[in-house]
Amino acid sequence: MTNSRSTLYLLLPIIIGSMFGGLSLYFLNDKDEKLDLEKLALGDETSSQFSQFMGVPVHCEDIDDAYQCIDGYKKYSNDNVILWLGNSQLHSINQMKAGDETSSSILHRCMKSYSKYNMTFSQPNAGLQEHYVLFEYISRQLPISTLVLPVVFDDIRETGIRSSLLGIFSDPNVVDQLKVSEIGKALLKNNGDKDSAGNDMSALEETVQENSERYLNEKLKSFWQIWADRPALRGRLFISLYKLRNWAFGINPSSTRKMIPARYTMNLQALEAILTSAIEKDIEVLLYIVPLRNDVKVPYDLVQYNKFKVKIRDVAQKFDVKFKNYEKLVPTENWGTKESTTVNGVQEIDFMHFQADGHKLLASALCKELKDIDRAERRK
């Protein structure tokens, strides 16, 4: 009897943990529709739109859908490509109404009259390291004449490569190109031989462990939908924990974000690697500071933010590429609000995403600069 009780005590944490985990998965699971993690992050006030032109995608996200944009171009055009990389500012519209469109769609039409094909790729919180990897991948497949590259203070606080871009590291041509820069070597070291979850697979390749894990995963997914949905459920749980953390520590969009020195350095190295590679490929570059809401205190350490802007300008001068500061381009009335980033549910100021009129302003400003670049190219 004593042994049975001791065994029960030993197994009790496992039993309780399993019950809690199973219940959590059940209640977090949305059985009626596919979970859209970005929509959860942006909230109902901000809508995502990836543009098409005459039914052909001209705005994609990462390598999971890149073929749609690339194949569409190859089928319907032979114009030189303007590649625009960015974050969610490019595919998000505050308080979207019927007929509203993003700046990528407007810019595509504008440049069409100059026999240029604007193609946009954007991911939420995209960092310069990710732009570097994606640029090397796309520039191998399309005749890019101009790269449009925004730089965001918030996003130089990011580091690493998201799972949806890891497949790029299996392209030997991209790997060879990344090897020429120190930051490229670091990215290869940290991301080579990874699966879509970022796990190191080189030591597991074709082992009993890898095969058994694959077998069990497939079996569980076949009869238990919750197991198949666990990546989305994990994301939803992370967002809930993120909101709880923000509420507990009083963090909101107006909270001051400071520079993270090591990440800042790596992203600047990635920026210089992008510009070096673009120049080697004879690709023109338009580098710009993104629009930022400024009718209230900006959520950055102002000393660091001002130094950052000067540094980006200096890098542009060093590489002799065009530079524009658009931080004050979008007026107050074109900005909106966003869903709460805490559990209290109160609407918050959105510093990054603007309404449709803001997209028109950004597209118009970029179109003007790109026309100037086009005229300069024709004079050569």
Q: Would you kindly provide a written description of the structure presented here, covering whatever features stand out?
A:
The chain is α/β, with parallel strands linked by helices. The chain has one domain: SGNH hydrolase (Rossmann fold), CATH 3.40.50.1110. It has helices spanning 2-28, 37-42, 66-76, 103-112, 128-139, 172-178, 182-191, 208-223, 225-228, 230-249, 261-280, 302-319, 356-379; strands spanning 46-48, 52-53, 56-57, 59-60, 80-86, 92-94, 116-122, 144-151, 284-289, 322-325, 335-338, 348-354. α5 runs parallel beside α11 (261-280). The longest helix has 27 residues, at 2-28. It is globular. The termini are far apart. The relative contact order is 0.14. Mean pLDDT is 79; it is low at 25-37, 194-206 and 340-345.
How is the largest sheet built, in terms of strand order? Answer: 4-7-5-8-9-10
Give a short account of the largest sheet: 6 strands, parallel
Please tell me what the overall shape is.
globular
Q: N- to C-terminal separation?
A: 92 Å
CATH superfamily (homologous) name: SGNH hydrolase
Helix amount? 40-55%
Number of strands: 12
Sheet/helix structural class: alpha/beta
